[in-house]
Amino acid sequence: MTFAATVLTLYPEMFPGPLGVSLAGRSLARGDWSCNAVQLRDFAPDRHRTVDDTPAGGGAGMVLKADIMAAAVRHVADGRPILAMTPRGRPIAQARIRELAAGPGVIILCGRFEGFDERLFDAHPEIEQVSLADIVLSGGEPAALAILDACIRLVPGVMGAPDSGVEESFEDGLLEYPQYTRPFEWEGRTIPEVLRSGDHAKIAAWRKLRSEDDTRLRRPDLWERHRDVRDQPASGARHDTKEPDQ
After folding, report:
1. HEC per residue, the chain
2. Are residues 103 and 56 in the same domain?
3. How many domains does the chain have?
4. Which of 32, 66, 128, 133 is within CB 3.0–4.6 Å of 119 for a Cys-Cys bond?
5. Residue 176 domain flag
C-alpha cells in the first residue's frame, strides 16, 4: 500500500523539498509513498485568486477564508486523516505519527498569515488542528514537511533495518539512550566500558537506565507521563476498595 500525502498550500513548490532526497527521496522514486501539492489559490473564484481577508473585529494581518479552505479540503477529501497546521493546535506526538504511517496517507492543510477562519473547523470537525511544537512559524509548510518525514520513515521499506524505528526517542515514552561509535578514545573521552563488554543483558540494562535518567532530567514532562502509564494497574485488576461480600 502506498502512503499518499496531499498538501494544500500556497507554496506547492516547497514539496517534496527535502523529502525528495536521501531515504525518503529514494522511496518516493520507488513508489513507496506519493506527494501531491495542491495550490490553494486554485479554489478562489475571483480573478485575483484571493484566499484571505482582514480579521473580523480588526487587527493586524490577514485570515485565510473559510469558504476557500473548505472548497480545497472537500476537493481532496477521500477518507484519509486531515490535519490543519496551526499554532492553536495540539502538538503532535509520536503515537499519532505511528497511527498515520500505518494508514493510507494524510492530507495536510498549511496555514499562513494570522491563521484560519474558525468556521472552517466548525463545519469540518474531522479536521485535526495540530502544531509541531510550542513555536510560531511563518507558515505550515515547514511543519508539514517535518510531520511527513516522521511518517514516511515508518512506511515499510523506507528504512533499512526493521528495528530502526523502534528503539528511538518517544517510541516508548522516553528519550533514547546516548549513542557512541569509534574511535574508542576521543579528546580524552572514552566510550562507556559496558558498551564494549559484549554482554547484551548488561548493555540493555545500561541503556534502559540511561534512557530513564536522561528523560527524568531533560524532559520531566515526558517522565511524569511515562511514570503514570507505567504505574497504572494491570488490565483486569480490581480498582475498588470495598471488602468482598461475607
Report:
1. CCEEEEEEECCHHHCCHHHHCHHHHHHHHHCCEEEEEEEHHHHCCCCCCCCEECCCCCCCCCEECHHHHHHHHHHHCCCCCEEEEEEEEEECCHHHHHHHHCCCEEEEEECCCCCECCHHHHHCCCEEEEECCCCCCCCCHHHHHHHHHHHHCCCCCCCCCCCCCCCCCCCCCCCCCCCCCCCCEECCEECCHHHHCCCHHHHHHHHHHHHHHHHHHHCHHHHHHHHHHHCCCCCCCCCCCCCCCC
2. yes
3. 2
4. 66
5. no
pLDDT tens digits for range 117-152: 999 999 999 999 999 999 999 999 999 999 999 999
Tell me the pLDDT tens digit for each residue of 39-70.
999 999 999 999 999 999 999 999 999 999 99
Q: Considering the domain boundaries, does residue 92 fall inside one?
A: yes
In a domain, 242, yes or no: no
Q: Do 135 and 51 share a structural domain? A: yes
Q: Whole domain around residue 121: which residue ranges?
A: 3-152
